[in-house]
C-alpha cells in the first residue's frame, strides 16, 4: 500500500473542519492528525472512527502543543477558532502556527480564512470585524513569503458565511402565523458569497492533490452569491411558501439579536461581566461590521468559473442546495459553537 501523506488538521471538529477531515480520509491518499483540546468529545470521537484519522490532544493557543502537532507531518490545514481566541490572540497564534510549521519542514500549509474585510473595503474602519480581519491579515502574511517547492508551499482557503446558517444561527427566518417566513435583519441589498459546507471538503482535497496549481493561491469559494431578497425569493420558488426579507436598522437588529446585553464575541464560552482586553470585541462590535461588509456586496467577487473547473459536481446554486436539503425555513443544528452552547445549558 502506498504511503499516506500525513496532514495535521487544526479546527477539524468544527463545522468547516469536519468535512475536510472526511474528504482527506475518504480519498485514501492522506492520513489525518487532528489536534483537539478534548479527545473525548462526541465530535472528536466520531471523526477518529474514520480510516486513518488519529486524535492528538492539544490547543491552538499553546506553542508547545503546536510544536508537537507539526512534528513529522507532510501538510497542514489550519482553521483557528477566532471566536474563542479573540482578534489579538488569533493574530499571534495564526502567525506562530505558520512559523512553527516552517520550522518543522511542513511541505504544504493550507490556511483557512475569511475575507480580509477591512482591506477589501478600502481600509474604512466601519468594516473592521475582528472575526474576519485577524484571519485576513495572517493569510496576507503567509502568501507574501512566496512559494518554494523545496521549502513550504502555502495555499489560502477563503470562505464567506455558510449557506448552512440558513438552518442554524443568524440566517434562520421566522415563521409567521400566516405561514410565511420572514428574514428580519439589517442586510443591505448586496450579494453575499454563501458557501455550502457540503462542498468544503472537495475544494481542500483539490488543494492538497494539486500543489502545482494551488501553491500561492487564495481560493475564494462560494456556492452562490445572493442578496437577502434573492434568498427569500428562492425560498418561495422552492417551497411555494411566502418568503420575505425585511430590512431593519442595524441598531434595532443588534439590540434584539445579541445573546445578552454587552456579550463578548466569545459569548458561548464566557460568562457575562468578565473584564476584557481593549482589543476584544463585543458581540455587537463584531457583528456590526460583519453585516455591513457581507451584505453590501464587497465580497461577491468569487470566480465561479474557476470553482466549476475545480469541483465539477459542486452544488450549483442556492436553489439546488435548498432542494437537496429539503429546506423548509426551520432551524436545524449544524454549527459547532451553537451545539456546544446547547450542551452547556
Ligand atoms: C488506513 O486505513 C485503512 C482502513 O482502515 C487501513 O487498512 C490502513 O492500514 C491505514 N493505513 C495506515 C497507514 O495507517
Ligand atoms: C473571552 O473573552 C474575554 C474578554 O477578553 C476573556 O476575558 C475571556 O477569557 C475569553 N474567554 C475564553 C474562554 O477564551
TrEMBL record:
Keyword set includes NADP: yes
InterPro entries assigned: NAD(P)-bd_dom_sf (IPR036291), NmrA-like (IPR008030), NmrA-like_oxidored (IPR051164)
UniProt keyword annotation of NADP present: yes
Alphabetic keyword roster: NADP
Recorded superkingdom: Eukaryota
Family: Belongs to the NmrA-type oxidoreductase family.
UniProt protein name: NmrA-like domain-containing protein
Source organism per UniProt: Aspergillus cavernicola
